[in-house]
Amino acid sequence: MKLFDVLKVAWKSLASNKLRSLLTMLGVIIGVAAVIIMVAVSAGTEAAIANQINGLGANLVFVMSSFSQGGARGMMGAPSGGLVYDDVAAIAESIPHVAGVSVEQTTSQTLKFNDVVLDDVTVLGTTPDFPTVREIEVDEGRFVTALELDRSSKVVILGSTIAEEMFGETDPIGQKLTVGTQKLTVVGIMEEKGLVSGVDYDARVYVPITLVFDKYESQGPFARVSGDQVRQIYVTAESKDYIDDVILQIKLLLAKRHDVTLDEPDFQISTQEDIIETQQSTTASFRVLLGWVAGVSLIVGGIGIMNIMLVSVTERTREIGIRQAVGATPHDVRMQFLTEALILSLIGGILGVLFGIVGSWLFGRFGDMPTVVSPASTILAFCSSAAVGILFGFLPANKAAQLDPIVALRHE
Prior knowledge:
single chain, alpha+beta, 56% helix, six-stranded mixed β-barrel
């Protein structure tokens, strides 16, 4: 029996029971669509996390405090187990191929201007390189200068949201704003940046970090001797080609300054790529889990195909007997029913792919999380639907092929 004839007979049989065929395909449609949508959600989440991390700044190196078991305290170094503010200047002056170095120290204060009061506003003490390192521009006015940093000048730069809430239509530049117990002069407004890794950059104000040390977060009478401690230093390399060299130079410099060994440092260094890889490993495991959960729908759809085909074999037993009586071989009968199961699964797979792509788009368009449709997941889901049709269609097809022609002809 020729392939064209097999396809023609199989299609005619399925078309004669349109509703049953559609309901049989429903499980495969849902399964394929579920695989595509779930993988798209996972991939979209992964891409969003990577974008947020990259939004922190380009070619960024994170230098963080940690505790070592050894390490001496020195006048020019840091206490064992931490970074100090002087390390920032040392990195900026000593390490080549560094585009910017910044450090941040936060505190919460109440902001007042005339009758407007905002409680628990994040005050970020930082350095002049902050806009370069964090890839954020000043919209109006200017940022902190090196001279203001050295003098702990009472100046403040507002995030766009804070500027609007505090001053409305009034020009903030030059106005006196009470931050905690200090009156600061507004010298700039940052451009809108929005949320990055859950931090709202527009709802903060920026001041010289030395002002935070002196007026808002005193670290004790010996802070100026041993050094103002900081949690993390941000270093931006000139390009990705220099990141490894910059990291090595920072390790050597800090190990010398802190009097520690590279085997037991009192600091840790990581990059954006390290963070992204960690996040990707987590989301990859989550994506695999979602894929398996969605794959269960495909298996259920395959079981539905097998059940319907078994019912079809029972209903068409006499037809099978007549075909065998006029010359059809068991192979021809097997191929006929296997082709019907394959057609059901392939059509269900095509419709599932269409619904999955549309569903992913709708989820990303109207949902809270972005979606990224992966061609690999689409192809895998479609191929899985074909495999399901062959796997679960083989048993009914084999049962039909093994029917005795005499018994089949007598079947009522």
